[in-house]
Amino acid sequence: MANSNSDALIHDPKGGMPRLLEIMRRLRDPKTGCPWDIEQDFSTIAPYTIEEAYEVADAIEREAWDELKGELGDLLFQSVFHAQMAAEKGLFEFDDVADTMSDKMVARHPHVFGDESRDKSADQQTKDWETIKAAERAGKAQKGTLDGVAVGLPALLRAVKLQKRAARVGFDWPDTSHVLDKIVEESQELVEARDDLTQAEVEEEFGDLLFVMANLARHMGVEPEGALRSANAKFTRRFEKVEEKLADRGKSPVQSDLAEMDALWDEAKAEEKAAKLRK
């Protein structure tokens, strides 16, 4: 129920985290809240949570630092939304979320918050982190190597996580040459599937090729989601340049043809490389 203290907090521009929590509580109030917010549940909000995480990554990718604050706020609001719904069901409160995260970070950084030495490499710290996480999974009765890798992760990210888990128990190629050989093999199988198999079988072979590409990224220390985001941004940037060059000729892409656009693409690519050399 709204009261003067609640209203004062909601309209306090310096209200910080308590203000945001109260706003969320009021939005979900079954009598006075927002009908849309009241109707939501964990499953309907989850897609927005994923979307907001990607928008944070997008702002960082574009170095749009003026936008990042707002995008981080949107992502924080998703955590607040889920925590409010959990509180209504008697599952946990937002403070429990924060405390759980704090406990986890303290436990996973004994070289910072405990008595372990900080005198070790980042690679050794990563190995120690994985050892601690493995112990945590054992405590949760997750016995299988791949247990706990979230099914709802983006497929490319989940592929890398699955491969990392398998690699911990020795199920991994020793170097990138074996991965590259597998890519050639999977590419050939995809071509054969295109010519002779059903669409479902083509999709299966295509998935196999993507999975091996994710493995190559892992072996080469490349974050595949980030690499693909960068490739998307580069394609967008260069195609927009092609459109600009066509506009200078009084044309649009539909009034052009592949040969002309391909030539303009090469121009845009050369200009981009020259600009990088001048920096």
TrEMBL record:
InterPro entries the record matches: MazG-like_dom, NTP-PPase_MazG-like_C, NTP-PPase_MazG-like_N, NTP_PyrPHydrolase_MazG
Keyword Hydrolase set for record: yes
GO biological process: dATP catabolic process; dGTP catabolic process; dTTP catabolic process; dUTP catabolic process; response to stress; TTP catabolic process; UTP catabolic process
Keywords: Hydrolase
The organism's place on the tree of life at top rank: Bacteria
Domain NTP pyrophosphohydrolase MazG-like: 40-113, 179-242
Reaction catalysis annotation: ATP + H2O = AMP + diphosphate + H(+)
GO molecular function, one term: ATP diphosphatase activity
EC number: 3.6.1.8
Family stated for the protein in its record: Belongs to the nucleoside triphosphate pyrophosphohydrolase family.
Full protein name: Nucleoside triphosphate pyrophosphohydrolase
Organism expressing this protein natively: Cognatishimia activa
Record gene name: mazG
